Amino acid sequence: MTTVSIAGIDLSGPSNVAGTCVVVLRCREDSAVFMQHLPVAGDSEIFDLITELARDTPVVAGLDAPLSYQPGGGLRQRDRSLRERIVKRGMRHGSVMPPTFNRMAYLTLRGLGVARLLSTLDPGRVQTIEVHPGATFCLRGAPLASVLAFKKKSEHRALLLEWLSTQGIESLPRTEPSDHFVAASGAALAAWEWSRGQSVWLAPPEPPFHPFAFAC
């Protein structure tokens, strides 16, 4: 069975690398083991990490950021589809925002930049997809109260890490996790499930305007 490295990346805007976290899993078909994380990561650190991982195994990088935008602005069709699904499950309408909306545009800018960097690596070794950790938690049955509150309340972060262990992810550290670590772990889960064809929601690539898959 092929071993794959998964990098779940909770991105922030270009000037806030302290708000970026990367969680790395080493995965086989039915198991995923936590290997390392970067609690603070600029673009060069992300690029260097993925480059190093790709020397040993194929890599799937799941970026928690829009990797395209709708020409003319507003929601992409994939955003509308995901928003509809998660609102029916109890998440807030604003959990999915237009990529060009106010401060979201900074996150989109960085998402596009990091995706472009990773696209310079061997496409046979590195694949990049867009993910949404909150939606991944919600649609896969994580406790909704914890999904809604983990960014502000630490007790809900611990509950989500415990839930992640029920999804096949082993050895996640539990010591005072940041909200960014939990989000990056959710991003890693979405990327791992996509890598083995088990996404619960998927928007396939639609080039040229939306060239990356978007998966939960």
Give a description of the structure.
It is built from seven helices and eight strands, in the order E-E-E-H-E-H-H-E-H-H-H-E-H-E-E. 38% of the residues lie in helices and 19% in strands. Strand 2 (21-28) and strand 3 form a beta hairpin. The chain has an eight-stranded mixed sheet with strand order 6-3-2-1-4-5-8-7. The radius of gyration is 16 Å and the shape is globular. It is an alpha/beta fold. The chain has one domain: Nucleotidyltransferase, domain 5. The longest helix has 17 residues, at 179-195. The protein has helices at residues 43-54, 77-88, 104-119, 133-139, 144-149, 154-166, 179-195, and strands at residues 4-10, 21-28, 31-38, 59-64, 126-131, 169-170, 202-203, 214-215.
Q: How is this fold's topology laid out?
A:
Blueprint: E1 4-10, E2 21-28, E3 31-38, H1 43-54, E4 59-64, H2 77-88, H3 104-119, E5 126-131, H4 133-139, H5 144-149, H6 154-166, E6 169-170, H7 179-195, E7 202-203, E8 214-215
Parallel strand pairs: 1-4, 3-6, 4-5, 5-8
Antiparallel strand pairs: 1-2, 2-3, 7-8
Helix pairs in contact: 1-3, 4-7, 6-7
Please work out how many helical segments DSSP would assign.
7
Q: What's the N-to-C terminus distance?
A: 23 Å
Oligomer: single chain
Question: Which architecture does the CATH hierarchy give at level 2?
Answer: 2-Layer Sandwich
**Secondary-structure element series:** EEEHEHHEHHHEHEE
Structural class: alpha/beta
Average pLDDT, to the nearest integer? Answer: 96
Poorly predicted spans: none
